[in-house]
Automatic annotation (TrEMBL):
Chain segments annotated as transmembrane: 36-60, 75-93, 105-122, 134-152, 164-184, 190-212, 224-244, 250-272, 293-318, 330-350, 362-383, 389-408, 429-451, 471-490
Name of the protein: MFS transporter
Domain Major facilitator superfamily (MFS) profile per the UniProt entry, residue ranges: 38-494
Localization of this protein: Cell membrane
UniProt keyword list: Cell membrane, Membrane, Transmembrane, Transmembrane helix, Transport
GO molecular function: transmembrane transporter activity
Key word Magnesium present: no
Organism: Cryobacterium lyxosi
């Protein structure tokens, strides 16, 4: 029988006894119940990481006043988290593989909670920035460990599709949940609770994880690739920082220096990995055509989602005058559509396959963003915004539900953490790219609109809306580009998606 094209398992280097030790046979009903509890725990952790990006954005205006931050410091509160998170993701994934995924999950969750508590109690800008950096560090350990736990505990079958459907729905809708929760906490409690809220969530997740999750780790070659870790950390960090600074102009020195430097360092990283016998990111993970297409789709959809959502929030609050709570509730239809769409699609994905939804999803998402280009200063929510949000949510559900299945299908358990980190890194880089690119396009559109116009409030609001329209248009173009990529590249065999599930694996 020929070897499946999509399989990427490396030759086993572990003794038979160790291989057996990595799998635990259990009573199937008990094992099945345990791993669905595991899914709930991992989903809670993933929600914490995803919503943290937007929940803090809502709190920033109050935090700036309370701590006396400058506008530059305020920007760093957002940038520092994404910078550390993006730079250390691949290393965090390998630590999870070698040190243990359960251990990494618990340490990452606990560290994230401690960092959040420090940030919530911050008395000055330096303490808040330090806390945000620590949050990024522990998130880089927590996120790949969470996804790796799903990968090894749902190795195949329809249950895997359902598990990754929920995970994908949270990845797509968590940002909007952050807007709602951030608005409620900021308005009725304090900006500090936008950070403190992570503490009780972490306590619940850790208390549930200790008895439910069983340890799993890679065996055989578990040496760390130190040169690769250094190159990819500085390479990804340079890219994230460069994109984050692009809002100050694409000709500024951080952009001109950091973006080319990041690309050079990542090229060197690929060169080192191709010659290492213990690579940080085995190139077999990313060179497969199907998986590579999924990674590119993650990059483009992440850029469109995070970049587009930022300007929608600005439109609600600045032009329409919504409060933070109203702004979050106005985004709720998109989140609800993603959640409902994920549940429905997971029931049919085994029959339809992944190629159709991953091709149609970007087209529907682009249609939603194009609809949002029709927003006006007057702002008729029901006609100008709501249909666009429903279309965008539908498109994102069609993308995110199959995305994780494709990106992690055929991954050997030895590489689960590394592959999970690679998927998350693509989405993180995409978010940074989208935010920077759309901010630059927004600024250019605003300036162009104001040329020759007499300064007035009406002209200013018109300029803002013109900028938002430009951002939505380019976000639509970016996400639409994922459609041909999915159509021509994301074509796994049905057996790859629905690989028969092996003996019950509990890590």
């Amino acid at each position: 029988m020929p070897t499946p094209r999509f399989r990427t398992d490396p030759p086993s280097t572990a003794p038979a006894s160790l291989a057996a030790a990595s799998s635990v046979s259990a009573d199937p009903p008990a094992a099945n119940s345990r791993r669905w509890w595991l899914l709930a725990i991992v989903a809670l952790a993933q929600l914490t990481v995803v919503l943290d990006g937007t929940i803090v954005n809502i709190a920033l205006p109050q935090a700036q006043i309370a701590l006396g931050m400058s506008d530059g410091d305020r920007t760093w509160v957002v940038t520092l988290y994404s910078l550390v998170f993006g730079a250390l993701l691949l290393l965090g994934g390998r630590i999870a593989d070698f040190w243990g995924r359960k251990r990494s999950f618990i340490v990452g969750m606990a560290g994230f909670a401690i960092a959040s508590a420090i940030g919530g109690a911050a008395q000055n800008t330096g303490e808040l920035l330090a806390a945000r950096g620590l949050q990024g560090l522990f998130a880089a350990l927590l996120a790949p460990a969470s996804l790796a736990l799903l990968t090894v505990n749902f190795p195949g079958g329809k249950d895997r599709i359902k598990a990754f459907a929920l995970y994908g729905a949270i990845a797509g809708g968590g940002a909007a949940v952050g807007l709602i929760l951030g608005g409620v906490l900021t308005e009725y409690a304090s900006w500090r609770w936008c950070l403190f809220v992570n503490v009780p969530i972490a306590i619940v997740a850790i208390a549930a994880a200790l008895p439910v999750i069983r340890e799993s780790k890679a065996h055989g070659n578990t040496r760390y690739d130190v040169p690769g870790a250094i190159l990819v950390a500085f390479g990804l960090g340079s890219l994230v920082f460069g994109f984050a600074q692009a809002e100050n102009g694409w000709g500024s020195w951080p952009v001109l220096v950091c973006l080319p430097l990041g690309l050079v360092l990542l090229a060197l990283f690929v060169f080192v990995e191709s010659r290492s016998n213990h690579p940080l990111l085995p190139l077999r993970i990313i060179v497969d055509k199907v998986r590579g297409g999924a990674f590119l789709t993650a990059l483009l959809s992440g850029a469109a989602l995070l970049g587009g959502l930022l300007f929608l929030t600005l439109y609600f609050q600045i032009v329409l005058g919504y409060t933070p709570i109203q702004s979050g509730l106005a985004s709720l239809p998109m989140t609800a559509t993603i959640m409902i769409g994920a549940g429905v699609l997971s029931k049919f994905l085994a029959s339809t396959g992944v190629r159709i939804p991953m091709t149609v999803g970007p087209i529907v998402g682009a249609a939603g963003l194009l609809w949002l280009t029709g927003i006006t200063v007057g702002g008729n929510y029901a006609l100008e915004v709501l249909p666009g949000l429903i279309l965008l949510g539908t498109g994102l559900a069609l993308i995110f539900v199959p995305l994780q299945n494709v990106a992690l299908s055929g991954i050997a358990e030895h590489d689960a953490g590394a592959a999970s980190a690679a998927v998350t890194a693509m989405q993180q880089i995409g978010g940074s790219l989208g935010t920077a690119l759309f901010t630059a396009l927004y600024t250019a559109a605003v300036s162009s609109y104001l040329v020759g116009k007499v300064p007035s409030p009406a002209a200013q609001f018109g300029a803002l809306v013109s900028g938002y329209q430009s951002a939505f248009l380019w976000a639509a173009i970016i996400i639409f580009a994922a459609a041909p990529i999915a159509f021509f590249l994301v074509r796994p065999r049905r057996d790859d998606l629905l690989a028969p599930e092996p003996a019950v694996h509990l890590g």
